[in-house]
């Protein structure tokens, strides 16, 4: 499957956001990853609609928006209006996940499901066929720069086995502690979309770092 690299804007320099957006546009990256945090679902807050709209105006690649918020159904239409192309919600935050995914698709976006590190892949058995993407959190969500959780490899492998039976076009994305030391192993486990923050934006040459992740 095609490899997808989605640099996380959470690690960008917000004093020079336009510069960092232009860098991603020039690079081999495929998507812009935007983490939305509300201070309730996760113990941190990030940016909201004005930043998403600013990124959309400059971005030449799709916006991959990850909602780490409670009751995401309240805002599906608003994120579509702001420019989201892929919208991912947490299984832990959705009471009626099937309905939420249907609504995201009806709005014209790709629909993703995210799992926290403690959440079993088996919970996706009856819903994975409805998703365009599943995002495996390989750190506890809420903060950048955390250490990769090793159990994530086996979760990715189990999910890929499930996808082969129920949804062969499923994109498996990994977010948290992703860098050049583990990218190849993540691909081998079955992932095909990697989110990277510090590994890109703290690199001496971010464009080379993106290329390295893509070709690991």
Automatic annotation (TrEMBL):
GO molecular function: D-ribulose-phosphate 3-epimerase activity; metal ion binding
Enzyme class, spelled out: isomerase
Keyword Zinc among UniProt keywords: yes
Active site: 35, 175
Entry binding sites for a divalent metal cation: 33, 35, 66, 175
Cross-referenced InterPro entries: Aldolase_TIM, Ribul_P_3_epim, Ribul_P_3_epim-like, RibuloseP-bd_barrel
Residues given in the record as substrate binding sites: 8, 66, 142-145, 175-177
GO CC terms of this entry: cytoplasm
Pathway terms, separated by semicolons: Carbohydrate degradation
Record key words, sorted: Carbohydrate metabolism, Cobalt, Isomerase, Manganese, Metal-binding, Zinc
Reactions that this protein is recorded to catalyse: D-ribulose 5-phosphate = D-xylulose 5-phosphate
Pfam families: Ribul_P_3_epim
Listed cofactors: Zn(2+); Co(2+); Mn(2+); a divalent metal cation
SUPFAM superfamilies, alphabetized: Ribulose-phoshate binding barrel
NCBIfam families reported in the protein's UniProt record: PRK05581.1-4, rpe
Function, in words: Catalyzes the reversible epimerization of D-ribulose 5-phosphate to D-xylulose 5-phosphate.
Family per record: Belongs to the ribulose-phosphate 3-epimerase family.
HAMAP family from the UniProt entry: RPE
Protein name as catalogued: Ribulose-phosphate 3-epimerase
